[in-house]
Amino acid sequence: MRLKRFFFLASGLAALSASALAPLAAFAQAKYPERPIRLVVPFAPGGVVDVVGRHWASRMKPLLGTVVVENQGGAGGTIGAAAAARAKPDGYTLLLGTTTLATNAALGLKQPYDPMKDFQPISTLADIPDFIAVNKDLPVKDYKSFVEWSAKQPQRVRYATSGLGNQPHLWAELFRARNKLNLENIAYKNAADALRDVMGGHVPIVIDVVMPAGVLATQGKLTGLVVSSEKRSPVAPNVPTVVELGMPDMVSAVFFGVVAPAGIPRPVLDRLNTLVRQIIKEPEVEKKFADLGYVTTGSTPEAYLEKLKFETARWTKVVKDNSIKIEG
Fold first, then answer.
1. CA atoms of 262 and 191, how far apart (whole Å)
2. Which pLDDT tens digit goes with each residue over 6-57?
3. Best CA proximity match to 225, nearest among 115, 133, 160, 153
4. If you write DSSP's letter for every residue of 161-211 in order, what string do you get?
5. Do 132 and 325 touch, CB atoms closer than 8 A?
6. Considering the entire predicted model, what is its pTM?
7. Closest alpha carbon to 209 in 267, 127, 270, 139
8. Residue 246 to residues 124, 179, 228, 243, 311: CA-CA distances in angstroms?
């Protein structure tokens, strides 16, 4: 009898403790944030990823307080993402999610986390579309004449990309296969080197994101052929989109968003989602991103997760169909 009374008393105290702690947890979430938030950017300072993260962090400061950007580059974004995945899911560590959450998985790279299970998507931020351009001295003035010209070449036409296995490269292979183009990839270590060699005439074509290639085309240093967005890019307004050329299935972009470690409390998730979407729709923010070649987006957490699933499946098929292999 005494043993039964002990268990009854113990269970009652446990229930009382849980009910007492619930308001405390809710109170803590209501006061969120009470200290600086860490935004892990999984690439080095100064690049296109860093620009997105720092601009978003600066705009969030009036609403959330200090957002400290912490660059943890390396291994194609894996090092920074792993650090964020291991963090406590309390809303004080966030990750600037990039397309690599989908492409690294599609490439079969070893990762110390599961992009679909170890992260909670918060909202997409912005897209930067892909762009195809050629050396300005080539006898090519638009996409149609490019197709005709490339078909006459006795050997595969080389195209430069900013890296093997990144989103622009995978999109380029999808575009090549879809249009039956006789192209061969030459992967550079970065976009600057790829663009330099195309402008110098060493490689005829470059396929990369629209910035800075689109600006160089607008300046007449390259000939722009097509941009992978639904609407024309402000940085290359004279270049038609894949939709205009009758290829709506080729719409694509390097995309960015904010994710948190899985398990973040729903009230904190909802607050972050609301503020992210509020910030990126401000006219000043939209213009800032547009000037850099980005298109601001914004989504629900659920829509962001579906995007990650779609992109992973899309690039997995491209990798398989084109026998693309990356060590790692």
1. 33
2. 334 444 434 444 444 444 444 445 689 999 999 999 999 988 889 899 999 9
3. 133
4. ESSTTSHHHHHHHHHHHHTT--EEEEE-SSHHHHHHHHHTTSSSEEEEEHH
5. no
6. 0.89
7. 127
8. 27, 11, 12, 5, 21
